[in-house]
Design the sequence.
């Protein structure tokens, strides 16, 4: 049996390859520090060769991606004033190539394949952590927590969050049945167990918030598009007022106390303050992409010592916006925030405007998760990270014309209508037609 090469790059027809590629990519993102450059080459080998199959289809029109590449290009340009130019050059090129791979995946993978691949990948990552993981003592709060095969419980918690979210999306958004419904349930339970054992308050709270938000949006989208926007605005105003009331009533401290945290978020507020002070040294363009946390630099060494980071690596300001402004200044902060905001609100706009759009519903949840976590983590700022991969996948989907993608979603699986102008075309009167 011969399989057409074109099926490798046709969304929906490449499900087996897509699931495999996504699952292996997640494993590389999670454990590339353990397996080294070989794993990174395997990641590139999954996506870049697809360009050779059909470069027009796989790459698309890169002129429409300029806003997506803006931060990436600027990160590479920072080598000209970087405090560590060689490091900025290497990581900038890595980030650029990582974004290209994410956009290739965006062009070739549909939403069902993405969801199934993320479920499979998260399950494999979490199982590996359960088999080979360890516990870690946190000297700041005096507790032991399960970090899996990661160096941080927050990273284990993030993959657990992704496992829970995509399991939820598979069943309640895409309506998976049969084996994949069972797989989603098993992966969701595994992810929930890992989330609890990690004791990551960040991941627990953000996961609960995003699942609740998606349930609310599911109820809103049951209405006609004309009524959704009014209800969404009303719900947003009510939610904002309720949030302010909870904050003033001491609800934040109560929630943090339930996780054994205090108002300093285990020293994060102090770390944020230090980041803001560091940004003042070069507020416009920053010190260079990935050029702050460098061994031998006095401020980085001081903070590593204060936070008991013996490895002197893998540390950050635990806030995407602060980290971005320190490394790339206000210019980089604006460019990165633009991608994040457009990805989130662009999917929200489609969700409120379309009659039924499962793709936008799933990607809206992804955008919400990344947006919320941006205030406490830096998931979207580094290469070979599942957060940045999902961000550019979500943003890239907005560049694909709505009409063509919506038409594809309406046809049964495995059936692909002929291009316009052949056997049939759009429902428009032909010249001379009596209609």
Sequence:
């Amino acid at each position: 049996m011969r399989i057409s090469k074109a099926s490798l790059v046709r969304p929906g027809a490449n499900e087996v390859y897509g699931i495999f590629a996504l699952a292996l990519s997640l494993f590389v993102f999670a454990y590339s520090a353990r397996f080294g450059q070989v794993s990174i080459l395997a990641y590139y080998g999954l996506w870049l060769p697809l360009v050779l199959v059909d470069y027009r289809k796989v790459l698309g029109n890169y002129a429409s991606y300029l806003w997506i590449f803006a931060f990436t290009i600027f990160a590479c340009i920072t080598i000209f004033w970087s405090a560590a130019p060689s490091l900025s050059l290497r990581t900038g090129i890595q980030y650029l190539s990582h974004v290209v791979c994410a956009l290739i995946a965006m062009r070739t993978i549909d939403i069902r394949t993405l969801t199934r691949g993320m479920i499979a990948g998260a399950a494999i990552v979490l199982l590996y952590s359960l088999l080979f993981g360890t516990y870690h003592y946190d000297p700041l709060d005096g507790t032991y927590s399960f970090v899996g095969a990661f160096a941080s419980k927050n990273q284990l918690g993030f993959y657990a969050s992704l496992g829970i979210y995509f399991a939820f999306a598979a069943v309640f958004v895409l309506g998976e049945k049969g084996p994949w419904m069972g797989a989603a349930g098993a992966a969701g339970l595994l992810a929930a167990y890992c989330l609890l054992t990690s004791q990551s308050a960040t991941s627990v709270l953000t996961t609960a918030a995003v699942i609740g938000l998606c349930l609310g949006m599911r109820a809103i989208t049951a209405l006609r598009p004309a009524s959704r926007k009014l209800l969404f605005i009303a719900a947003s105003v009510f939610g904002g007022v309720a949030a302010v009331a909870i904050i003033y009533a001491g609800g934040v401290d109560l929630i943090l106390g339930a996780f054994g945290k205090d108002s300093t978020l285990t020293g994060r507020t102090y770390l944020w303050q230090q980041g803001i002070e560091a940004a003042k040294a070069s507020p416009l363009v920053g010190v260079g992409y990935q050029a702050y946390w460098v061994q031998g630099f006095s401020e980085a060494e001081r903070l590593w010592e204060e936070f008991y980071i013996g490895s002197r690596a893998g540390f950050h300001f635990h806030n995407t916006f602060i980290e971005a402004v320190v490394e790339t200044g206000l210019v980089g902060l604006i460019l990165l925030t633009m991608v994040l905001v457009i990805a989130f609100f662009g999917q929200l706009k489609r969700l409120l405007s379309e009659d039924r759009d499962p793709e936008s519903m799933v990607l809206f949840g992804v955008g919400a998760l990344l947006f919320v976590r941006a205030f406490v983590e830096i998931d979207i700022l580094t290469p070979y990270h599942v957060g940045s991969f999902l961000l550019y996948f979500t943003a890239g989907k907005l560049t694909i014309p709505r009409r063509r993608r919506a038409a594809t979603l309406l046809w049964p699986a495995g059936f692909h209508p002929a291009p316009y102008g052949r056997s049939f075309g759009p429902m428009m009167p032909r010249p001379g037609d009596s209609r």
Observations:
- The radius of gyration is 22 Å.
